[in-house]
Amino acid sequence: MRKIIVGLMITLLLSACQNEAQILQEKYERYKLHYQSILNTTQFKTSSEHFSIEASLVKITDGQYRYDVFVDEPKIAMHDVEILVIVDNGLLLVSDKMMPSVGLFEDESYRLIPYQVDVELGYHKGFNLNGIVESDKINLKVVVMWKDYFEIKAEREYFSFDLSIEETVDE
Known about the structure:
Elements: H1 2-40, E1 52-61, E2 64-72, E3 79-87, E4 101-102, E5 126-133, E6 137-147, E7 154-164
Antiparallel strand pairs: 1-2, 2-5, 3-4, 3-6, 6-7
């Protein structure tokens, strides 16, 4: 009897691990799908009528730079927000880095709704996605996806930002 109980516990543990691995694999497939959609897109914006989006590049040490993408100030209700940033058209197949994202790997749902902030309920003021690069000139491509108020209609906008650090030379 004891062996049966131990066997059942091991079976349950193994099936739970397989389910978690399968869920993670599905999330990674979704990440790859969005990544490829950015690479396939030919028309990009630099601003949105639905929210504020900004990008910046700052030097943090010699040879290292930090980029930031800020998505905030929603003008409409945005549910199930997902954001992905890629740097310099990096090819997905040869990239060994995960790009910054929101809503793709997390188990919770994110919302941007004008004048509403309650992080415990998933209502955020905005998002900051960032990373470290070794170049003082980069191109960031961003996709922001969300569903409407009724969570039926899905929207998607693509953005491109050319960023650089202009070094000043003292004479």
